[in-house]
């Protein structure tokens, strides 16, 4: 399985003002980033688009647009890199298919060892009884 790289034409980056503390500068600088990724209009395969749209993720709205807000860092450039990395992480996680599990049986030897340990524990517990006074 290879990692999927999303072209820059598939998503839209917008600078917004970050929330939280920051003094006077917070009202002037648009350091946070809104990343909008339209899943239906993207260049991904139909199979992967379907997997992304079926995710139970509150960041995907009813129109099939994934909206990420990056405001962890103080600079806009660092927030852009963070938003793009998070987008790639989400898409690559949806691309990962877990291998099928199949039922197996315990071997004869493992059954015998388990029963032997059980009898040993039972004998140990049996010895814990009170000693009868004569």
TrEMBL record:
<dbReference type="InterPro" id="IPR045853">
    <property type="entry name" value="Pep_chain_release_fac_I_sf"/>
</dbReference>
<dbReference type="Pfam" id="PF00472">
    <property type="entry name" value="RF-1"/>
</dbReference>
<comment type="similarity">
    <text>Belongs to the prokaryotic/mitochondrial release factor family.</text>
</comment>
<keyword id="KW-0378">Hydrolase</keyword>
<feature type="domain" description="Prokaryotic-type class I peptide chain release factors">
    <location>
        <begin position="17"/>
        <end position="33"/>
    </location>
</feature>
<dbReference type="GO" id="GO:0072344">
    <property type="term" value="P:rescue of stalled ribosome"/>
</dbReference>
<protein>
    <submittedName>
        <fullName>Peptidyl-tRNA hydrolase ArfB</fullName>
        <ecNumber>3.1.1.29</ecNumber>
    </submittedName>
</protein>
<dbReference type="InterPro" id="IPR000352">
    <property type="entry name" value="Pep_chain_release_fac_I"/>
</dbReference>
<dbReference type="GO" id="GO:0003747">
    <property type="term" value="F:translation release factor activity"/>
</dbReference>
<dbReference type="GO" id="GO:0043022">
    <property type="term" value="F:ribosome binding"/>
</dbReference>
<dbReference type="GO" id="GO:0004045">
    <property type="term" value="F:peptidyl-tRNA hydrolase activity"/>
</dbReference>
């Amino acid at each position: 399985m290879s990692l999927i790289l999303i072209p820059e034409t598939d998503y839209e980056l917008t600078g917004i003002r970050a929330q939280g503390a920051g003094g006077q500068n917070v009202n002037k600088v648009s350091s946070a980033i809104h990343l909008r990724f339209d899943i239906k209009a993207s260049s991904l395969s139909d199979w992967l688009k379907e997997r992304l749209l079926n995710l139970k993720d509150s960041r995907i709205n009813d129109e099939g647009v994934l909206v990420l807000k990056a405001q962890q860092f103080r600079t806009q450039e660092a927030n852009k890199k963070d938003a793009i990395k998070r987008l790639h992480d989400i898409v690559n996680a949806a691309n990962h298919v877990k291998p099928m599990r199949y039922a197996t049986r315990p071997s004869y030897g493992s059954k015998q060892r388990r029963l032997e340990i059980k009898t040993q524990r039972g004998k140990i517990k049996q010895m814990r009884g009170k000693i009868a006074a004569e």
